[in-house]
Design brief:
The protein is an alpha/beta fold. It is built from 27 helices and 34 strands. Helix 10 crosses helix 11 and helix 16 runs parallel beside helix 21.
Length: 845
């Protein structure tokens, strides 16, 4: 029995995998063993026959081809099936012992693969172990030498090919392209009447080229090999499609926009797909449907390639078969490129998700596949859409989509540390409507952990602007080159909840604000907060102060309805940490705070400075390393019965101008006899009016802010210019050029508030009249200025007031105008001056 070893040599390794190959029975005639009485020549003739039969049985040596002996290089080259005239893709390396007897050989067919076959003479296994080892070593060296020989030959052929390619002109048109209904792509050239398609490896090295004739006949460049070679049509690298032929690849790229690779034929699909394994892109094998060929090699090989590379595959489905269609170019010709796109996109999402093989996800839920081919349901539909991380590649997590019992989709990011807490994770998922047994919480967490989707998203722990896009818990508003999501443990979701439609809010909430200065001020603040980022303004707040039951909390609910559920309004009773977290969570939106009087008087002043400065304190974590400082840029609306000055007086402190500029104290009472309201429209009483405002605010919320963000994001640059002009125009109209700088700073804050209300009105969100917005904000500024005591310096006014108090307490130190000496001098004390006409006249040395 003749023994044969078959070896696979891959580009990654020259290690050998040995199997037994049995010669075909048709060539298993009598074989003579060697003996000392037989001449070397006779023995070798018999063994050459054994070898030839073995090579023929392996399908390498065609029956009609005769081996003629070794070449000068130690290898014999011979023609194989498919070789052109003069081409010899078969190779053979013989191994002789020290007596010149043929004992082993290595051979292969470079035209179809790198596979190396090994032959040992009949009786090899009876040789002493030392002789067997010596022969095996010579065979091993022969294999390596054969591979080196092949690589050298291919390198020389590729150098010739590269020079030829460089000398040719780029193609602009060709009958083959016209016939296939495709456009020429980058790098394709013309050689004579043929198109020349350059094919590279994953490192960009030119490996070979395919020539396509006018009649569609295709051939590869000689001596270059093709394993792992492909032609790349650049597109969106999120997904890479792999197809067989050039026309199919071009069609797929034109239909989908994804990067597409032409792999030459179905046999090379697996090599190209393996080369891309580990890529950050989703891989889709777009195989040919060779339904009219026995064994359907296109489908068979594509499935093998997909399995070997963790990819997915798709095949064209035709509504008619009379033209015997097979590939996606045929589909485009018959049914259009949109049908190509639709069929491919059906599997692209699956490729992007990279769902682990042991799980199955459908519109009915997530299932765990069991070894007995049964399935176990874990939960309702849940997909991991993306991996999340911050810009420093830290704080990883998963961006999840789940469907609740009403069929509503929810998308949100979950930190990795929460995924490792199955009980807490299931609690969060359940809040969004996931149905799953608590007994499956570990399995659900494992499923989420194992999902490694292709998509990546930048995560942030707060909402707000990122470049020209606004990030909210449920997604991003505006265009961005990268996906950005909010990743927190859940508290953000409630803050930006929505209910009802924008039209509901506009007609049942905003409409009630018309003609009411404090109501328009409050809602305009909600729209103005996102503008701070655009126009470079600092954070700041407005405090509406008045007694109880005057409607001040109603204004908070009204303003909060722009962004979310009014039931999430916060109170001032909070620690420094708590206040910092609240501000960060509301970044670039409106923070609503109730009951200023509940704030610790000792911390009141610092709290206002902190909120206005937009930055928290530096703190250390449990390992004594510095935590990242929380930051924000926002407007905050406050209400309470006490002013900041009155709160701080409780501990004997006083307010400073810096605090009062950052936190504008405004009387909430509009002075019309209706508390906070100027007008109550057709309502019989302010109480009933307030009830409707509160009721509607609690029923319709969270839509206006998002509509405003969409308007700003879609018109970002022009909105920035417009907002700045609106602020400047408002301040200019106040005629405060000679006023104290503190007054001007406050005036700009009112100007920003006006810009917010004005832009929201111009974008058809509020339904107000722009003039009503201007008059309302100006009225609030004017009343603030009057209560302040004028437009001078607050510090100077307070200093003079203190001096006046002291002078009044020392009135006996002044005489009247007609008195020669004041009473103090009559008593032997020094005189300070005269007092008349309501003024103190002090003597100056």
């Amino acid at each position: 029995m003749t023994e044969s070893n078959e070896t696979n040599v891959t580009p990654e390794s020259t290690s050998v995998v040995t199997t037994i190959h049995q010669a075909s029975p048709d060539f298993s005639g009598p074989l003579r063993a060697s003996n000392h009485n037989t001449s070397v020549t006779t023995v070798n003739e018999d063994r050459e026959l054994e070898l030839a039969l073995n090579m023929t049985g392996a399908g390498v040596l065609p029956e009609q081809v005769m081996l003629v002996g070794e070449s000068d290089t130690g290898f014999e080259r011979f023609q194989v099936a498919g070789d052109d005239d003069g081409q010899k893709s078969g190779w053979l390396a013989r191994n002789y012992n020290e007596d010149g007897v043929l004992v082993a050989a290595t051979y292969g067919n470079w035209k179809i693969s790198d596979k190396q076959y090994g032959w040992r003479f009949d009786g090899f296994s009876a040789l002493p172990v030392d002789e067997q080892k010596a022969i095996e070593e010579s065979v091993r060296i022969a294999r390596i030498t054969a591979q080196e020989h092949k690589e050298k030959e291919q390198k020389e052929s590729r150098e010739v090919l590269a020079k030829r390619y460089d000398s040719l002109a780029l193609a602009s048109d060709h009958p083959y392209l016209t016939k296939k209904g495709i456009s020429v792509t980058e790098g394709v050239k013309v050689r004579g009447s043929e198109l020349m398609i350059p094919l590279h490896d994953v490192n960009g090295n030119l490996l070979t080229a395919q020539y396509i004739g006018v009649d569609g006949n295709k051939r590869l460049a000689k001596g270059c090999g093709k394993k792992g070679a492909f032609y790349k049509i650049q597109g969106d690298d999120t997904v890479i499609l792999i197809a067989e032929g050039y026309a199919t690849a071009v069609t797929l790229n034109e239909a989908t926009g994804y990067t597409t690779l032409m792999a030459i034929d179905c046999g090379n699909l697996i090599h190209v797909a393996r080369a891309l394994r580990g890529s950050k892109s989703a891989i889709v094998i777009c195989g040919d449907n060779d339904q009219f060929t026995d064994g359907n090699p296109g489908t068979t090989k594509a499935k093998e390639a997909a399995k070997a590379s963790d990819a997915v595959c798709v095949f064209p489905a035709f509504s008619r078969l009379d033209t015997r269609p097979t590939d996606f170019n045929d589909l485009a010709t018959l049914e259009g490129v949109n049908e190509v796109k639709n069929q491919v996109e059906m599997v692209v999402e699956l490729a992007l998700l990279r769902i682990p093989a042991e799980y199955e996800v459908s519109n009915k839920g997530v299932y765990l596949k069991k070894k007995d081919d049964t399935r176990e349901r874990l939960c309702s539909p849940l997909k991991v859409l993306a991996m999340t991380r911050d810009r420093n590649s830290k704080n990883w997590g998963k961006y999840i989509e789940l469907t609740d019992a009403d069929g509503v989709n929810h998308k949100f990011a979950v930190p990795a540390e929460l995924i490792n807490e199955p009980k807490a994770l299931l609690g969060l998922l359940t809040q969004y409507g996931l149905s799953g047994s608590i007994n499956k919480q570990n399995d659900i967490a494992t499923y989420i952990n194992l999902c490694k989707p292709v998509r990546r998203a930048i995560c942030t722990d707060k909402v707000g602007w990122k470049d020209k896009s606004f990030i909210l818990p449920d997604g991003m508003i505006g265009e961005s080159n990268e996906a950005i999501v909010v990743q927190a443990r859940g508290e953000l979701q409630d803050i930006f909840e929505k209910n009802g439609t924008l039209e509901d809010w506009k007609t049942k909430v905003a409409a009630l604000c018309s003609g009411n200065s404090r109501m328009i001020l409050a809602v305009s603040m909600a729209f103005a907060s996102p503008l701070l980022h655009l126009i470079g303004e600092e954070s700041g707040g407005v405090h509406l102060r008045c007694g109880s039951s005057r409607g001040k909390t109603t204004s908070l609910r009204l303003a909060k309805s722009v962004w979310g559920n009014p039931t999430t309004i916060q109170v001032w009773r909070a620690t420094d940490n708590g206040l910092e977290s609240l501000a960060s969570l509301h970044n670039n939106t409106l923070l609503c705070m109730d009951e200023l009087g509940q704030l610790d008087p000792k911390k009141a002043g610092d709290a206002i400075y902190m909120l206005g400065n937009g930055k928290g304190k530096q703190r250390a974590d449990s390992s004594a390393e510095a935590r990242s400082v929380k930051t924000w840029n926002l407007l905050f609306l406050s209400t309470g019965e006490l002013s900041l000055q009155e709160v701080m007086k409780k501990t004997g402190d006083t307010t400073y101008a810096g605090q009062e500029v950052r936190f504008i104290d405004l009387p909430a009472d509009a002075g019309a006899g209706f508390g906070i309201f100027d007008h109550i429209h057709e309502y019989p009483s302010s109480a009933e009016f307030a009830n409707d405002v509160n009721r509607n605010s609690n029923n319709y919320f969270g839509t206006a802010g998002k509509a405003f963000l969409r308007f700003i994001a879609n018109n970002y640059d022009s909105a920035e210019v417009t907002a700045k002009k609106l602020v400047e125009d408002f301040v200019k109209n106040l005629d405060i050029e000679a006023s104290d700088p503190q007054v001007k700073r406050v005036a700009r804050k009112f100007g920003v508030i006006y810009a917010g209300g004005c832009l929201a009105t111009r974008s058809k969100i509020t339904g107000w009249d722009v003039e009503d917005v201007f008059n309302s904000i100006k009225q609030c500024f004017t009343e603030w200025l009057e209560e302040r005591g004028g437009d001078g310096s607050l510090e100077e006014a307070r200093t003079l007031e203190e001096v006046k108090k002291r002078l009044r307490r020392s009135s006996n130190m002044f005489g009247d105008r007609d008195s020669a000496l004041p009473s103090a001098m009559n008593q032997g004390r020094e005189s300070w001056g005269h007092y008349f006409d309501g003024f103190y006249h002090v003597f100056v040395p």
